Amino acid sequence: METSCRKWKILSATAMKLTAVIFMFADHIHQMFAAKGAPVWLTIAGRLVFPMFLFAAAESFYYTRSKRKYLLRLLFASWGMTFFTSVLQKLVPNENVVLINNAFSTFFVSGLYMMFWDWFMEGIKEKKRMLIVKSVLCCFIPVLCAIPLLLTGMLSTNENIPVFFIQALAFVSLLIPGILTVEGGFSLVLLGVLFYIFRKHRIIQILVLLTLSALVYATVNRIQCFMGLAAVPMCLYNGKRGPGMKNFFYIFYPAHIGILYIISALTA
Question: How does residue 175 score in pLDDT terms, banded at 50, 70 and 90?
Answer without folding.
Answer: confident
